[in-house]
Amino acid sequence: MISTFGIVLFLLIFGMAFWLLLFLLGFIVPFWITIDIFERLRPKRILDDKK
Could you tell me the end-to-end alpha-carbon distance of the chain, in angstroms, rounded to an integer? Predict the structure, then answer.
């Protein structure tokens, strides 16, 4: 009984970690890289205030 509970708990934690890593590598990291590229390509404004 206890060993079955341990195996199920291990598989549950492993499954959650797997899907979290898959989500991070599939969506968050490319999104982060794309946003960084757009920020680097955006022209910088030296004087923002119009007086």
Answer: 76
